[in-house]
Please model this.
Amino acid sequence: MPRTVWSGAISFGLVTVPIHVVSAREDHSVRFHQVHLEDMSRVRVRKVCEIEDREVPNAEIGKGYQLTKDRIIPVLDEELREMPLPTAKAIEIEAFVPLESIDPIQIGDGYYLQPDGQVAAKPYTLLRKALERSSRVAIAKYAWSGRERLGLLRVRDNVIVLHAMHWADEIRDPAELKPDDVKLTRNELAEAEHLIDRLTRDDLEGEEFTDRYTQAVEALIEAKREHREPPTVEEPKAPGKVVDLMAALQESVAKAKASRGEDATVHEMPKQKAAAKKTAKRASAKKTAAKKTTATQKTAAKKTAKKTSAPKKRSA
Model:
């Protein structure tokens, strides 16, 4: 059972739901210690007081705000906890919105909210079912670790989840990163859409969605523990500069097909320039034929006019 990160309540109008907050994620990364390579002894970070030049235990360490170069104002954890904020003790729901209206870049780490005892079961279930029936998510404010935060409440497998959110003014404007406008052909767009179709799937289950880096690190450690050579892998190819975008797209589609056991034959799409030349030739041929037809008609008309206008010979 994961440890409780925070205890408080969800404030839903006049309804209060006592809850415990636990992390919804696990970190499976391989951890390393810093060591002195000559003798493999641990290298530790020590907290030393600059004035007394001695190591200071955690019990003597607190928070301080540097007002000027020579003055620091101490701020106690108790003072932060007792600030007159409604969000200091509760997760205050402010609004309900469609999930689609939230930019994913604002959404951060997730936490499971566990009802605190049987007394919280009914209001907890009420909020959960109301969220499900409304097809909306709740936007809330809460205060953790010395600051007020924005959060998103949603339902996952009959449990309410709190996602930390970034405030809107914390998101940088990406406008300056936008590349200059470029022209894309219809064929390039069609092939890109074809590649998306080939890579579309219903879930993220499968070997390709596993942490291969952690597996490789674990294999390396196991090999070194057993005093044998670590497993070797092929050197990954460095991404090259794309010269022919269309060829790169077609090759990508072929690889996607091959990975699914489909026919990976690349069928070249007609080039627009060649098609344009053919169209121009056809148009030119039509114009030439039309000119010839017009000229023939004019010649025939002239001959007819001459015959009609020729004087009749008088009989003797």
User: Anything to note?
Assistant: The chain is about 30% helix and 25% strand.
